[in-house]
Amino acid sequence: MNDPTRLAVLVWDWPVRAFHWGFALLFALAYALGDSERWRNVYVALGYGVLALIAFRIMWGLVGTRPARFAEFVRGPGAVLRYLGGIARGRPAAHAGHNPAGGWAIVALLGLGAATGISGWLRYQDLGGESMEDLHELLAGAWLGLVVVHIAAVVLSSLLHRENLALAMLTGRKRARASEGAGHQHALVAVGVIAAVGLVIGWTARASPVASEVGPGTGTPVAVAPAARKDED
Ligand code: HEM
User: Fold this and answer.
1) Distance from Cα 20 to the centre of ligand 1, integer Å
2) What pTM does this model have?
């Protein structure tokens, strides 16, 4: 655990950190606005933002820096069991990026985020009726449950490894060998992602029906084509 060859190395590049805190922010805002008819268009736009962020993270998981790649942290059941066995013995193995158990939690967080966003979009297109609404709520609830588990696991992991992992997700630096690090910050990629997701949210918030166009009572938006809205303006 106190291996002197492990130094504070850049593990999470800027795109991963921008993705993480952007994802957490959009998730929190979507939960806060989910029941509000007044903010319905912003809520819908946040859903598009979540999907855009996930699309970027999938791409970065294929071509990004080493610790960000799926191939680096999505491991087989043997590796997960060995890691959990290490925890049970009070000697969890150190990993520069996500540990084998955490890697699967990340895949599930991305998968549930995508499934929640897509089911919300289908509901918004008036596809699937009430069962789609139920499915969307179920997925959103499961996503929230997993986020709670994720935050608890980060606290537990930080205690086990005696390293503040939340701070590491802010600074990008963790105890690791230099060869295990990200190598580059890729700040421009992060700026591009933030700008692109901001544009997606801004554009879709404008294109989605606003509060006055929301059907009475249920909060179900009345589909109004953007062109038709322009005519009304
Ligand atoms: C205060 C709240 C949060 C804290 C402190 C936190 C902290 C962290 C930390 C430390 C990691 C890296 C774990 C590791 O070292 O293996 C991480 C990864 C991750 N977290 Fe969170 N998290 C928070 C909220 C959230 C929320 C709300 C979501 C989802 C909506 C989320 C989704 C993720 C994802 C997808 C990753 C993987 C990042 C990547 O590889 O791109 N987190 N989080």
Assistant:
1) 6
2) 0.89
